[in-house]
C-alpha cells in the first residue's frame, strides 16, 4: 500500500468555513500549521511488520483545529497477534488517558504521560489474551511542528532536519547495546546472556532469560519475564518552520543502514520515492534477512509544493554527531528545554519506573475522579487500589508508591515489572 498527499491531484481542497478561517487568522495559525507528505515501502520475509498511517485524527471530534496525525511501525516477533492488537488499540488507549477539556498546549504537555499509560494498558490487555507473541512499537504523533515519538524495542525514528542534521528520536532497547537496560533487567530478576550451545559455546546477541528475547522492552511477550516492560522512551521536539523529514523503520532497515546512510539515500526526493529508495538501499547492502518496513514523513511549510530536506554537504557534521551522542545519553533528563540546530527539544524521558513516568500531580485536571486509575482509566472504590494519599496497602512493598492512583490490576503489573511480584504472598503471582 502506498500513501502520499495529495492523494488525487484533481481533487479540490475541502471548503473551510469562514468562521474557522477568521479564527485561524486571529490566532495567527494560518502560516503555522505545516503540510505532511508521506510514503511507505516494505518487503516481507515473515509478514510480522505492520504499520499505521492515520493523517486525519481529531483530538476533539468535529473540531478541525484539533487535528493531528499518527504514523507507527509495529515489528512483531513470535507471531503477528501482538502487532495486530497494538495497531488496533494503542491510539484509543493513549487518547483515553488525555484529560478532557484541555487546550492545545496542555495536550502536548500531557501526551508523554498518556503515551506511557496507553502503552502499559495495551500490554496488560494483550497479555490477558494469553497469546505469546510480542511487538516493537514506534509511535509518532505530529501536531503542527511538534513531533512526539514513543517507542519500545528497536524500530527507530530518525529526523533529518533542514541543513542536513540527522538525529535519533528513539533509543534502541536491545540488551546487546544498552547497558542501562541490562542492569535494569538483572536488578528486576532476569538473567542476561547468550544462547548456549550444547558444547558450552555462546552464540548470538545478548538475550534475557527466561524467554530468550534480545529486546529489553516490548508490548506482549507474555511468555517472557515481566521485566521486559512496555514503558516507552518518549521524546518530543519542535521543528522550525523550515520543517524536516522523519524516517520510521523496522530493524530490517537499521541492521543494514546507519541513520546517516538512510537519510542520505533519499535526500531531495519526494516521500513516496524516498521510502522505496531507503528499502532498496538496505536490500542492496544486506539482502532480505528480515521484514523490512519504512515510512517517510515530510513536515513542510504548507505553502510549499514539494520541499523535502535539501542536501547540504560539508555542513553540520559536528552538530549532527553532537546531537546523536546527546540523544543516546540524555534519557534521564526530562523537561529540559534546549535548542540544537533548528530543532527545539521539549521533552525526553526513558525511565522504566512508572513512578517517574506518571508523576505525582496526575491527574492534573479536575475532570478525572480521584480514584480513576492513571493507566487503565477505570474508576475504583477507594479502598481497593493504591494512591499517593492513602499510601501502600501492601506492607511487603519496600517503599510506598508516590505516583498517581492505580487500580489493583495495574498496581500488580507495576510491581511485576519492577521485579517485586515475588515479594507478595499470592500464589498466582509467583515468578516465572
Ligand atoms: Zn488500572
Question: How are the SSEs placed, and which strands pair?
Answer:
Layout: H1 18-27, E1 35-43, E2 49-58, E3 67-77, H2 81-96, H3 104-128, E4 134-135, E5 137-143, E6 146-152, E7 156-161, E8 165-168, H4 179-187, E9 191-196, E10 202-209, E11 219-220, E12 233-239, E13 244-249, H5 251-254, H6 259-266, H7 271-286, E14 292-300, H8 317-329, E15 338-340, E16 343-349, H9 354-358, H10 408-417
Antiparallel strand pairs: 1-14, 2-3, 3-4, 3-5, 4-11, 5-6, 6-12, 7-8, 7-13, 9-10, 12-16, 13-14, 15-16
Helix pairs in contact: 2-3, 6-7
Bound molecules: zinc ion.
Give a summary of the structure in a few sentences.
It holds the Pfam family PP2C. It comes from Albuca bracteata. This protein has 432 residues and is α+β, with helices and mostly antiparallel strands.
Amino acid at each position: 500500500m502506498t500513501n502520499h498527499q495529495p492523494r488525487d491531484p484533481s481533487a479540490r481542497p475541502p471548503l473551510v468555513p469562514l468562521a474557522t478561517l477568521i479564527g485561524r487568522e486571529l490566532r495567527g495559525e494560518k502560516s503555522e500549521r505545516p503540510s505532511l507528505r508521506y510514503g511507505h515501502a516494505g518487503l516481507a520475509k515473515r509478514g510480522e511488520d505492520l504499520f499505521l498511517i492515520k493523517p486525519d485524527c481529531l483530538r476533539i471530534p468535529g473540531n478541525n483545529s484539533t487535528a493531528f496525525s499518527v504514523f507507527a511501525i509495529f515489528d512483531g516477533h513470535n507471531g503477528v497477534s501482538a502487532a495486530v492488537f497494538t495497531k488496533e488499540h494503542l491510539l484509543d488507549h493513549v487518547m483515553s488517558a488525555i484529560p478532557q477539556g484541555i487546550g492545545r498546549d496542555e495536550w502536548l504537555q500531557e501526551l508523554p504521560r498518556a503515551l506511557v499509560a496507553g502503552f502499559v494498558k495495551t500490554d496488560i490487555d494483550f497479555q490477558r489474551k494469553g497469546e505469546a507473541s510480542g511487538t516493537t512499537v514506534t509511535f509518532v504523533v505530529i501536531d503542527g511542528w511538534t513531533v512526539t515519538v514513543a517507542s519500545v524495542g528497536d524500530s527507530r525514528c530518525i529526523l533529518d532536519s533542514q541543513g542536513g542534521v540527522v538525529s535519533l528520536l528513539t533509543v534502541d532497547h536491545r540488551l546487546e547495546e544498552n547497558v542501562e537496560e541490562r542492569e535494569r533487567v538483572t536488578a528486576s530478576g532476569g538473567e542476561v546472556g547468550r544462547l548456549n550451545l550444547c558444547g558450552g559455546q555462546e552464540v548470538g546477541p545478548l538475550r534475557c532469560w527466561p524467554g530468550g528475547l534480545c529486546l529489553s522492552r516490548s508490548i506482549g511477550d507474555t511468555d517472557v519475564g515481566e521485566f521486559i516492560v512496555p514503558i516507552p522512551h518518549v521524546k518530543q521536539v519542535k521543528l522550525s518552520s523550515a520543517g524536516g523529514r522523519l524516517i520510521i523503520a523496522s530493524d530490517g532497515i537499521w541492521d543494514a543502514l546507519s541513520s546517516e546512510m538512510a537519510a542520505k539515500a533519499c535526500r531531495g526526493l519526494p516521500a513516496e520515492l524516498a521510502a522505496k529508495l531507503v528499502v532498496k538501499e538496505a536490500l542492496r547492502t544486506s539482502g532480505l534477512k528480515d521484514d523490512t518496513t519504512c515510512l517517510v514523513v515530510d513536515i513542510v511549510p504548507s505553502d510549499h509544493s514539494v520541499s523535502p530536506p535539501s542536501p547540504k554537504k560539508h555542513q553540520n557534521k559536528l552538530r549532527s554527531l553532537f546531537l546523536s551522542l546527546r540523544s543516546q545519553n540524555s534519557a534521564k533528563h526530562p523537561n529540559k528545554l534546549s535548542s540544537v540546530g533548528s530543532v527545539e527539544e521539549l521533552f525526553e524521558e526513558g525511565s522504566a519506573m512508572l513512578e517517574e513516568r506518571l508523576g505525582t500531580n496526575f491527574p492534573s485536571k479536575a475532570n478525572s475522579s480521584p480514584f480513576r486509575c492513571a493507566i487503565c482509566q477505570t474508576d475504583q472504590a477507594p479502598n481497593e487500589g493504591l494512591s499517593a494519599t492513602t499510601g501502600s496497602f501492601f506492607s511487603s512493598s519496600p517503599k510506598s508508591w508516590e505516583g498517581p492512583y492505580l487500580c489493583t490490576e495495574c498496581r500488580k503489573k507495576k510491581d511485576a515489572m519492577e521485579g517485586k511480584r515475588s515479594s507478595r504472598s499470592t500464589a498466582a503471582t509467583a515468578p516465572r
